[in-house]
Amino acid sequence: MNVPSPIHIAMRPLCVLCLAVFVLLSKVCALYGDVNITQADDQSVTVRSPVYSAKIDSAGNLAELTVLATPALAHAFGNPKLLPPAPSIHVIGDIVAVRSGELRDEWTFKDESIHLLTEGSRFEFQIDKSAKASLAANGKGGAVTKDSARGNTTVLVLANDRTILSSKRFHQVGYRWAPSQYGEGSLKPGALLEIDFKLGGTAEAVQLLSTIDIAPTGADTKPLLEDGNQSVYGLVHFRGSKIGFISGQQNLSAEDFAIDYELTVLDHYVVGKQVAQLKQSAVAKAGVWSRTEWQLPELPPGFYYLKIAALRNGTKLSDSELTFTVDLPHYDHALTRPGDFESFWKEKDARLAATPAQPQLQLITAASNPDKFYVVALTMPGGKTARCTLSIPGSRSTDPAECRGANPGANPSASGFLQRVEAAKAPDYKAPAHVELYYELPEAATYTRWASAEDNNLIECALIELRAIDYLASRPEVDPKRIKLVGASRTGPLVVIGAARRPGNICGVSGHVNTSAGISWTDKPYRGWGVPNWYHPTDAASVAKLAAMAAYVDPINHAPDVTCPIIFAWGVDDDLAPPQGIDVMFHRTASKWKRISRDAGGHFYSDGMKRLEVALSDVLKSSEPGASDQAILKQH
Predict the structure, then answer these.
(1) Sign of dihedral through CA atoms 407, 110, 527, 13?
(2) Residues 6+ apart with CB under 8 A from 360
(3) pLDDT of 221 above 90
(4) CB-CB contact of 74 with 61 (8 Å)
């Protein structure tokens, strides 16, 4: 499940000296389930779970991975032949994100598994020399496991007879362990690669059983909304109360044995609250594929997390997971607007009005080029400066002007801002057909600073969004009533706030995988990206503290004031931008034309969202669909 967990440090009374040492060595300690993630001042990260321990050093390398105290794997970040610039390493809940220019690794650490997303380099592991075997499902070494859907998994058997099960097939050359897709040519080195690793299973477990397949019975495959707003795109959704599944697994051994299956259902949002548990026993026949039927009790509308485990004599041999939804058209949540919500925002508008933007423009394109590109500096309240780029085509279409936000990136020399500037210097520079303003978020736009309702990263970025809208509306080339806002991930909540606070200027909004939606809920504590170090969703005091501050910037609370056409999208397994809040935000908008793409998968720019971009452009009478948000999403 592609997202972040909040951060909490629990300390017993210590002597002054020990406390000082602790603070010096460890600046972040994240707890997510049974996983403890600690980041030191040198950016290095230590991870501990009941099953494994890992260390990411200050150079971004996964320097150590041990499974039940047995050394297993290590890897080097980036291209070993070309040392990348010093990386930035951030702990975002249960994700450790490593960035260096265009290189990135994202490690998501769960209790018994690790999810890896890597891009920009040829990725490979070094296997510890004590490892016993690396065997692929269809490799020459013999089938120790079998993925019934693809047959492409690999199992690494360690010295303690525990295993690492990879969701993708690996080739071994000496002690190098690399994805087979490289050698087969189906994946270019440097391309985006995602792999799941299950850690700690017994060698016996993978020798005996295939992967557990889970298929829904009675799930909806039709659009969820009567007006045809979206299609399910692989999402497992149940419209009514008949919720069922069939699980299947093959006994790969030469003998029969007894097996117990255990099904658990967790509320996908309330930090693992168990809502159902079922058990069945069976005899696994040698070489036979067996099926088990499950009928769940009626569940209220919402998001749910299913796990089915196979056990033998009380020891778990394997398990599989699936996220599903129930009756989403009726899923909702009350607003959490404080009583002074409107006066709070009127005061912010007054502060902006009292601080002239004083735009300073620097022309980047050649004077003879009819298309113009400027670097723009806008003054913010408190004396800070918002940096923007403004492109103005010499011959414009009827499309509305666009206002977008972008992150500075881990490596300032490779930021999107500077890339746009460098591109504009080319003699043949061609601007987009519409006026486009990009504002750059500050380097600290992590939404982890929550000192008060007045002093936090999110409201700082929201005010930059409003300043950018006001400046764009003042331009003579722009129809001030026809500005389109585009945002994704951390800029997703900003476009909702912008549309709510500037309804006279905004004609359309494209926002997907919006973070921060539901960040002010206390009954369903937020577990997405952008929370302070002291927050943890199971700690009621920290939940209440954050909710009181965040209620003013929770985009759901702004949704009722959004009246223009708007599109949303979420991935059901997204832990950076949890879908629950996004779905409620969709319901709560007052827009007469609104669409949402509910998708399988995690934090990504889905095909469903791309279709909605075209639909929104048609509504706004654009000549062509809006530009891709993939670049913004990559910088998250």
Answers:
(1) negative
(2) 376, 377
(3) no
(4) yes
* Residue type present at position 527: R
Q: Which two tokens stand for residue 155?
A: 């199992």
DSSP state of 87: P
Classify the C-alpha dihedral 279-280-284-288 as positive or negative: negative
DSSP string, 182-193: HHHTSS-TTS-E
* pLDDT tens-digit series, residues 33-70: 689 999 999 999 999 999 999 999 999 999 999 999 99
Mean of the pLDDT values across residues 558-582? Answer: 95
Side-by-side strand order, sheet with 302-312: 237-238, 315-326, 302-312, 257-267, 273-284
d(CA 397, CA 292): 59
pLDDT tens column, 518-539 = 999 999 999 898 999 899 988 9
Question: The tokens of 632 are what?
Answer: 């913004």
Q: Is 401 helix (H, G, I), strand (E, B) or coil?
A: strand
Of residues 329, 325, 322, 321, the one with CA closest to residue 303: 325
Residue pLDDT, tens place only, 373-383: 999 999 999 98
CA pair distance 606, 595, nearest whole angstrom: 14
Burial 195-224 (b: 16+ CB within 10 A, else e): bbbbbbbbbebbbbbbbbbbebeebbeeeb
CA-atom Rg of the chain in angstroms: 26
The residue that leads in pLDDT, 599 or 226, is: 599
Residue 488 Cα distances to 149, 237, 433, 614, angstroms: 33, 24, 22, 16
Pairing relationship of beta strands 213-217 and 483-488 according to DSSP bridges: unpaired
* H-helix segments, 296-409: 341-354
Helix (H) or strand (E) holding 245: strand 243-250
Listed range (206-210, 369-373, 539-543) with the worst mean pLDDT: 206-210
Per-residue pLDDT at 384: 93
Close Cβ partners of 382 (under 8 Å, ≥ 6 residues apart): none
* Distance between CA atoms of residues 57 and 100, nearest Å: 14
Over the range 352-372, which residues count as b (16 or more CB within 10 Å of their CB) and which as e? beebebebeeeebbeeebebb
Q: Which helix (H) or strand (E) holds 178?
A: strand 176-179
Orientation of helix 341-354 relative to helix 457-474, angle to 10°: 60
What count of other Cβ atoms lies within 10 Å of the Cβ of residue 522?
A: 14
Q: Please write the tens of the pLDDT for every residue from 96-123.
A: 999 887 788 999 999 999 999 998 888 8
CB 203 within 8 A of CB 133: no
CB 233 within 8 A of CB 598: yes
Q: CA-CA distance, 14 to 20, in Å (whole number)? A: 9
Helix residue ranges per DSSP H, 450-522: 457-474, 492-501
Distance CA 435, CA 391 (A): 6
Q: How far apart are CA 227 and CA 594, in angstroms?
A: 10
DSSP code for 559: G
- Reduce the DSSP state of residue 165 to 3 states and report it: strand
Q: How far is C-alpha 45 from the geometric centre of its chain's CA atoms? A: 20
The pTM assigned to this predicted structure is 0.76
